[in-house]
Every structure is written in C-alpha cells, then in structure tokens.
Amino acid sequence: MNYPLEPYQPPTPANALEPAHTAVPAPVELYAEPQPVVWVPDAYGRMVPMPKHLAPPPVPATEPRDLTPLPLLDPVAQRFIGAGIGGGALAAGVGYAVGEVINAAAGFGSGAAMWIALAVLAWRMPARAITNGRSGGSTVNIRKAVIKRSHFHG
C-alpha cells in the first residue's frame, strides 16, 4: 500500500515524538516455517543453496530444430531465374521474327514488286500494241552479212 509522502519538516520539540507516517506491517517469518531452498551452480561450478524466491528463473527448453535439407536455391529465386531466361528467349524470338518480317518487306519492295509490276503491265497491254497495229501477225527476217577481207602486202 502506498502512502503519500508528507513534506519534510525539521524536528521541533513539539513534533519530535510524532511518527512521520504510519508504519506498514511486514509479514512475520517464523523459525519453524523455512522457505524452500534450491541448489544452483555458482561462478565456479559448485552447487550452492539459495532460497527459491531469490533463484533465477529456469532456462526454458529450446525447441527442436527442423533439420531437413533445404534446396540449393530458394524457390522464389528459381522462379525469378526461370522468368528471366524465359523472358530473354521470348524477346530473342520476337526480335528474330520482327527482323525476318522487315527483311521480307525489303525484299518484296526491291525485287518482287518490280516483277509483279512488269507482269501486270504485260497482261494489261493491248494486243495491238504488240503487233504494231496490224491485225494479222507478220514475220520479219533480218539478215546481216559481214564480209571480211584479208590483205597481205608482202
């Protein structure tokens, strides 16, 4: 029980014999009722007796550890590695495919488009333009004669 403290007053002849506060009764220990005693090791390893209420609390038993072997890599790290490798392969495949599409478009623009344009022009050209306006076909034979003479002035 806590009692409020009174301010300090120096003793005077009038209040010298009065108690400062009311005394708190303490529990009485009889000689025939001893406290339980426990034996604890001292600093040198010897066992010494000590009253139980003054002894340190007992050390709690440690829980058994799980000794199963762990994987070499953390499962989360394995997922990150797999995602990185898979993402890299996906990016490489997409890059290769885009390159092939661009190469095909460039090849089509330079070579195939020219041949397609010539085929369309030949197909759309009227037949009269090919035969020079004559309705029937005509055959023209061109002969070229080369006469070479050798002269020897000797």
Textual characterization of the structure:
- Keywords: Membrane, Transmembrane, Transmembrane helix.
- The chain crosses the membrane at residues 80-98, 104-123.
- There is one protein chain.
- The chain has 154 residues and is mainly alpha-helical.
- The chain has a domain at 75-127.
- It has two helices and two strands; from the N terminus they run ββαα.
- The protein has helices at residues 75-124, 127-130; strands at 37-41, 47-51.
- A two-stranded antiparallel ribbon has the order 1-2.
- Strand 1 and strand 2 (47-51) form a beta hairpin.
- The longest helix is centred in the middle third of the chain and has 50 residues, at 75-124.
- It is rod-shaped and about 170 Å long.
- The termini are far apart.
- The mean pLDDT is 78.
User: In which order are the strands of the major sheet placed?
Assistant: 1-2
Would you report the number of β strands?
2
Structural class, from helix and strand content? mainly alpha
Q: Tell me the Rg in angstroms.
A: 59 Å
Overall geometry comes to rod-shaped
List keywords for this structure.
mainly alpha, 2 strands, rod-shaped, 154 residues, 35% helix, single chain, transmembrane helix
Topology:
Elements: E1 37-41, E2 47-51, H1 75-124, H2 127-130
Transmembrane segments: 80-98, 104-123
Keywords: Membrane, Transmembrane, Transmembrane helix
Quick rundown:
With 154 residues, the chain is mainly alpha-helical. The chain has helices spanning 75-124, 127-130, and strands at residues 37-41, 47-51. The chain has 2 helices and 2 strands.
